[in-house]
């Protein structure tokens, strides 16, 4: 038995989404495949902000959010094969799936119709899942990731959602040397996307409305940066990109047809974002000029997560982060909402 | 010199789009690569109706529409290598491209930014292109297709747009045996799509709101037909399709999220339609459950066109058509608008 306490920073009301209070909670029930992890770090993802502000709908309160969790294994179920007590481990935005459907059998567990979110979802035993702004998390082995020894835990944690969400679609598309890849939006997801696309060998062009991020983008690996506040900003790369990953998380700031106009024939505009409001209505005519596609993903699978961590270790991909004590999570979520963060807040444990 | 007269059935006003009158017109100027074709047949495509009704915007009048043209070569420019006088030949929705850009060099001439539509577009010499409801057409060799001897000209003509528009995206996706392909909408495009998907070896499921088309769909090669008027019609194939080709040409009849819900992980919903109005606004969340894509195309290239005709000849794909005299084109466009056609009107020459 581990003596982990499950205790976290919870909000009670979406109208008061910066007001957190410490509460004990019950994790999902133990199974043969569950692992208990003592949390050291947790990234703040914009999903957390969408959720706690009610932007994605009603939530269960009190709620502990956070799904970019890094920690140390303290207990393993008797069926766990890949982890032992003392291992470093990371958990992302998904905590469970049915394990029986076609998707689960195909290593597409992130598309299981019964997938369980890391927080604000119903676990296998009916409990509401609670996230990583907390002392500890219990997760089935399939949703716990190994990281290479050389990758710092505080960098790996925010990659578990923010990194994987951009890595998985680029990995599936087959981003590689010789391709020209655009990254639109340079926030938490975008800053990982630039680094991973460059690590995969692509020529990377960043599209941002923020002049003060231009130098950062280049340091992250961009070969060019286009300011979307410039007139006709989408002309320079007209018909030029093989792939464009969009991390702009506000519908009205997402100029879909301008973005897709930069794709070469049959290029893909991948929307790595879930704005509160619908994407602008579009006409198929606007995509027909280049036969473009629009695609979407939901995080990634375990194989991709561990590939990502290996690539990060090999190519020195890191979270550009501001570390703050977990007790200052209210300030953190406010900073994400206000787009003040450069580029990810990582909460450091101060409860345990 | 051929003694072809260029004369066609033209409309003068989008408000009077069923009123055609016979007019002489000037084709694009001759070049070394142009071919003059005496027209025998021309299909009526729904694009023609979108255009002449003004649904896609203002047009040049008088206008001869029609871009599913089948005929006999009567003259070839001195640079023409693949055709000789007397050959059968087919022309589709595109009549020219710049020939110099990256797309043209990549056999992606259908995505050339300077592509020229077969009618209502400005040709290389400034003339407005006129379509196939007429006695003759002049086209550069790149936009004139060969057909196998065993394929009737009156079947090949409507395939030049209605067939190619559905063939090209399925060919690029790689539809093949072992795949489950949905076809939504069983009109002019859909009826070709069912036949080609089956000819490529896929298991084909048709989605239609018309009970009276069920038996036809099966004869065309569908293994199952789902009536979209049934309650929960999209449940049976939830997460089941690899590819879904949508030929529903009216935005409000196009239930995008119901359609995409039927795709397996990373499946593609291909919109082979250009409704007058925008597609419904969508949330990325609705595509995230299966990581689906939405794609669009603009007809196909010459290589694909000639592949399509070979497959049609080999696998006995035919236009299910109603032949009408070209002089009855007004009745034809009305029948397309009212969705009365089963499944393609083909105009038979009566002017020459």
From TrEMBL, chains A, B:
Coiled coil: none annotated. It comes from the Eukaryota. One of its GO terms (molecular function) is zinc ion binding. Its cofactor is Zn(2+). Keywords: Metal-binding, Oxidoreductase, Zinc. Residues 10-290 form the Enoyl reductase (ER) domain. Belongs to the zinc-containing alcohol dehydrogenase family. This is GroES-like protein. It comes from Rhodotorula diobovata.
């Amino acid at each position: 038995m581990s003596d982990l306490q499950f205790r976290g920073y919870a909000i009670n009301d979406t109208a008061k989404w910066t007001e957190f209070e410490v509460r004990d909670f019950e994790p999902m029930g133990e199974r043969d495949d569950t692992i208990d992890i003592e949390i050291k770090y947790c990234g703040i993802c914009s999903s957390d902000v969408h959720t706690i502000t009610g932007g994605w709908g009603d939530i269960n309160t009190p709620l502990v959010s956070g799904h970019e969790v890094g920690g140390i294994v303290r207990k393993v179920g008797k069926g766990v094969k890949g982890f032992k007590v003392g291992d470093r481990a990371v958990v992302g935005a998904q905590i469970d799936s049915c394990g029986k459907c076609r998707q689960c059998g195909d290593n597409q567990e992130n598309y299981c119709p019964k997938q369980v979110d890391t927080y604000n979802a119903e676990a296998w035993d009916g409990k509401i899942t609670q996230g990583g702004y907390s002392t500890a998390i219990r997760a089935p082995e399939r949703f716990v990731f190994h990281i290479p020894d050389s990758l710092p835990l505080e960098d790996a944690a925010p990659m578990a959602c923010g990194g994987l969400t951009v890595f998985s679609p680029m990995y599936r598309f087959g981003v590689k040397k010789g391709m020209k890849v655009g990254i639109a939006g340079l926030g938490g997801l975008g800053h990982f996307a630039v680094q991973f696309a460059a690590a995969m060998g692509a020529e990377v062009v960043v599209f941002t409305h923020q002049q003060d991020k231009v130098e950062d983008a280049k340091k992250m690996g961009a070969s060019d940066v286009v300011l979307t506040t410039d007139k006709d900003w989408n002309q320079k790369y007209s018909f030029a990109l093989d792939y464009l990953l969009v991390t702009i998380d506000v519908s009205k700031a997402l100029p879909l047809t301008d973005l897709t106009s930069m794709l070469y024939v049959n290029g893909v505009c991948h929307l790595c974002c879930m704005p509160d409001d619908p994407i602008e209505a579009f006409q198929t005519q606007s995509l027909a000029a280049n036969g473009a596609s629009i695609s979407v993903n939901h995080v990634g699978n375990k194989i991709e997560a561990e590939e990502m961590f290996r690539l990060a270790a090999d190519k020195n991909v890191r979270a550009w982060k501001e570390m703050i004590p977990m007790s200052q999570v209210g300030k953190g979520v406010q900073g994400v909402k206000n787009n003040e963060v450069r580029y990810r807040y990582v909460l450091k444990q101060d409860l345990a």
